[in-house]
UniProtKB/TrEMBL annotation:
BTB domain sequence ranges: 415-476
Any one GO BP annotation for this protein: protein catabolic process
Gene3D superfamilies: 1.25.40.420, Apoptosis, Tumor Necrosis Factor Receptor Associated Protein 2, Chain A (2.60.210.10), Potassium Channel Kv1.1, Chain A (3.30.710.10)
InterPro entries from the UniProt entry: BTB/POZ_dom, MATH/TRAF_dom, SKP1/BTB/POZ_sf, TRAF-like
Protein name: Speckle-type POZ protein
Sequence ranges assigned to domain MATH in this UniProt record: 84-213, 236-359
Transmembrane segments: none
CDD domains the record matches: BTB_POZ_ZBTB_KLHL-like, MATH
UniProt superkingdom: Eukaryota
Length: 577
């Protein structure tokens, strides 16, 4: 991923970048950078090599409209670790955002555990600033976190198009975030271009913003992705009105037609009809009954004149944003009284004018939630699902519970127990781990040392496996890990009787069987008497027997495990004959 502070490469797993290359690679045309050459080494490390180049970027703070130019030099062929986090925010019914100009909409807040447990959110100005035609967006750090006072990050932000491609891509490098501060892009999205290409940038009236943030140098490569959504409520109503005695009516007097609300959330509006003296147009005016000072009212309206059979003859569409202090708004004129009278046999059957109005009125933000969290490196199909398959998300209750439980674990607040290994100590909650593990429950209830010290000592698990096991106990989530680590986690789940984790690790091990590791997997299954993993391993060998049986790996396996090798080869022979 490109950045303008000298970061040119990422050291990630090939599985994670297999999908990111298709969707997250920097659009070199928009960035005005030369195309980079990408290649994977045997270990799956992404390498980038490109020549020395120099470029400038505009950078803005969200509390200062001034922008400065930042020059960076990108050195050739650099390789380093990157601690990364990607946040995807979907704003549903985006065109109904009711924030006036210079007023923002904040995303749901999210915690980046790998960056000192700091809390973040995006701040978007849906209707822009007062004197420009752009939609600004900023990455902000919450002021509630008590961790690092200063945190240096790089940031890339873009809109995800309907076809999964990037648009309006922006990059900032070398940012130092203090608590309660933010950086971003005052000229992020051009409003006219966004609404002109709604099918591309607003599919189903949903704006999808992706914010990719990373620390330049880290001891380990940590990857995570979080998706969230904000839904703007919309109430749509249809009305059909018949105005009798149209020709003889005194149109200098206003005809009032109230809009009856079906929802308590919807603002009150009245509609007035009256005749303008200047051009003979029948003026339609909308009046805001109880103006609110906190936010505006956005609505769109379609008005049609109907014939005697209820078919529309003339139709006019328009939309308007009521500011908090604005009292009324005039619908664009389109009905002339003289025309209606001239063609009264069509428009005024029995001296009656029939109108049909369709209103869609914004209710403001009605829901916001964290929908999915993926810890990585993550499988490409998971990433694609999160980024681009918008209709296949976790249920609201499940995803909210997982997110809340993960917060409970990483924030380590209100804890009443500690789990300690040789090099780490993790604070936990008795109620959680005892409900997930009978072994932990017995230790808490019956072990005198644990009762006295409030510490459970574990010597047979390293800190990484312990963290993965505890994360599962809180959230039912397992990182996308290697086959070897999945085996270690499997054994921990067996030792501490976390049955759900054992079953999940078994599925992961079977899924990750390959030509390179199938012998180790078969040995593991045999030693630990797991018939499902053993059968999956043997089936894989049978399906790839020509390649495996001719390998040096299989020769070594036969020398050490001759009975198991004979059993497997016999199974392969039976399947072929």
């Amino acid at each position: 991923m490109f950045a303008n502070n000298g970061i040119t490469t990422a050291k990630m797993s090939a599985a994670f970048y297999a999908c990111l290359l298709a969707q997250f690679l920097y659009d070199t045309q928009h960035a005005k950078l030369p195309r980079a050459c990408f290649s994977f080494s045997k270990r799956g490390v992404l390498r980038q090599s490109f020549s020395l180049l120099k470029f400038t970027r505009k950078r803005g703070r969200d509390n200062d409209s001034n922008c400065g130019l930042v020059s960076r030099t990108v050195m050739s062929t650099i390789e380093m670790e990157k601690n990364e986090f990607t946040f995807i925010w979907r704003i549903k019914n985006f065109s109904f955002c009711n924030q006036p100009k210079d007023t923002w909409l904040d995303s749901p807040k999210y915690i980046v555990h790998s960056m000192d447990c700091t809390e973040w959110f995006l701040r978007l100005y849906p209707n822009g600033r007062m004197f420009d035609s752009y939609i600004p967006c900023f990455l902000r750090r919450s002021d509630s976190c008590e961790r690092s006072e200063h945190l240096e990050l790089d940031c890339e932000m873009f809109v995800v198009s309907s076809d999964g491609s990037q648009a309006f891509t922006k990059v900032i490098g070398g940012l130092v975030f203090k608590k309660g501060t933010g950086f971003g892009f005052p000229y992020f999205i051009r409003r006219e271009e966004l609404h002109k290409n709604r099918n591309k940038y607003l599919p189903n009236d949903t704006l999808t913003i992706c914010c990719h943030m990373w620390k330049p140098v880290s001891n380990v490569a940590i990857l995570a992705l979080c998706s969230a959504s904000t839904r703007i409520g919309v109430e749509t109503r249809y009305y059909t009105w018949s105005i009798e005695d149209f020709i003889s009516r005194n149109w200098q007097q206003k005809v009032r037609i109230p809009v009856v609300a079906a929802s308590k959330l919807r603002p009150d509006l009245n509609i007035y009809f009256f005749l303008t003296i200047s051009d003979d147009h029948l003026q339609i005016t909308f009046e805001q009954i109880n103006p609110k000072q906190s936010s505006g009212i956005f609505f769109n309206c379609e008005i049609a004149i109907l014939d005697s059979k209820g078919n529309p003859l003339d139709t006019k569409k328009s939309e308007h944003m009521f500011t908090p202090s604005e009292k009324d708004w005039k619908f664009p004129p389109f009905i002339q009284k003289s025309k209606l009278i001239r063609h009264s046999e069509t428009y005024l059957v029995e001296d009656k004018l029939s109108l049909r109005c369709k209103f869609a009125i914004s209710l403001g933000v009605v829901s916001e939630q964290i929908e999915k969290i993926i810890y990585g490196p993550s499988k490409s199909e998971h990433m694609e699902d999160t980024l681009y398959k918008t209709n296949q998300l976790h249920s609201k209750n499940q995803s909210n519970l997982q997110n809340d439980m993960y917060r409970l674990y990483i924030e380590q607040q209100l804890c009443d127990l500690a789990v300690r290994t040789e090099n780490t100590k993790v604070l936990v909650h008795k109620a959680v781990i005892c409900s997930r593990s009978q072994v932990f429950k017995n230790l808490v209830e019956n072990n005198k040392d644990v009762k006295t010290t409030g510490i459970i000592d574990i010597a047979d698990i390293d800190s990484d496996i312990l963290n993965r096991m505890l994360t599962f106990m809180y959230t039912d989530i397992v990182y996308d890990i290697s086959s070897e680590n999945a085996m270690q986690l499997y054994l921990a789940a067996v030792d501490y009787k976390v049955n759900g984790l054992r079953n999940l690790c078994s599925s992961i091990i079977k899924e990750k069987v390959s030509v390179e590791n199938v012998c180790d997997t078969l040995i593991f299954a045999t030693v630990h008497d797991d018939t499902d993993i053993k059968l999956a391993s043997q089936n894989f060998i049978c399906e790839n027997s020509d390649e495996i049986f001719n390998s040096d790996m299989w020769k070594n396996f036969m020398a050490e495990w001759n009975q198991l090798a004979g059993e497997t080869m016999h199974k392969a022979w039976l399947e072929k004959h």
